[in-house]
Amino acid sequence: MAEVIGPLRLLFDGTVRRSARVSSRYSRFVGVMKLVLPLTAALLVGLVVMWPDSDLRRGALGLTFANTNVGVDGEAGMERVRYVGTDRLNRPFVVTAGRVTPRSTQAQRFALEELQADMTLDDGRWLTLMAARGLYDRDSETLRLEGSVDIYSDDGLELHTDSAFVDFVAGQARGSDPVRGQGPLGLLNARAFELFDNGRRILFTGGVSLTVRPGSDG
Q1: In which domain, by residue range, is 42 found?
Q2: Do the Cβ atoms of 119 and 127 come closer than 8 Å?
Q3: How far is Cα 150 from Cα 131, in angstroms, rounded to an integer?
Q4: CATH number of domain containing 144
Q5: 181: in domain
Q6: Over the chain (218 residues), what is each successive 10-residue block's mean pLDDT?
Q7: Taking the CA of residue 142 as centre, how many other CA atoms within 13 Å lie in the half-sphere pointing to its CB?
Q8: How far apart are CA 186 and CA 180, in angstroms?
């Protein structure tokens, strides 16, 4: 089984070695991906962790929503939710959701639809994560994203998969669906991925392939 571990190392099967230039470009690609996945997933959780707070429901601290109503399935929820804030490093972010619905009477599980998280990094670059739907469990502190998960950065890097599971207690994330990445460097494909140590390490597994575009700059 081929494995690729980052963010600063490129490991193949022990016999294939790339030039320092290719390794540098690949390390940059993997380095960005290991930052993007846990960071943007944490932003999404920022939306629902504060759900029970009455001040937030009134629009304080940057949280706004169009209305609360009962959907066609008979469940009450908030629609067109928008949460604006900064992280602990004072980087601005915006999280939006088409709808947020509690899935338990104790308001410990929340279903989210049409998710999008945007953040501006220290160097001015922006990151965007989009997911069709998600399920957040406050008891276990886990987030499951499904129905396509797409990540973009303004320097042309993209990552696409069909689902992802984030465990915030363990500081891990994983996905068992095919992963497709692309950027100025080239293309990356794998059957699954795992993140460890709060995103410090990323592992791509199962049929890992990297296609480098000729003449791409590192």
Answers
A1: 3-212
A2: yes
A3: 6
A4: 2.60.450.10
A5: yes
A6: 35 36 53 51 48 36 45 58 69 77 71 81 75 83 84 81 81 84 84 73 83 68
A7: 9
A8: 11
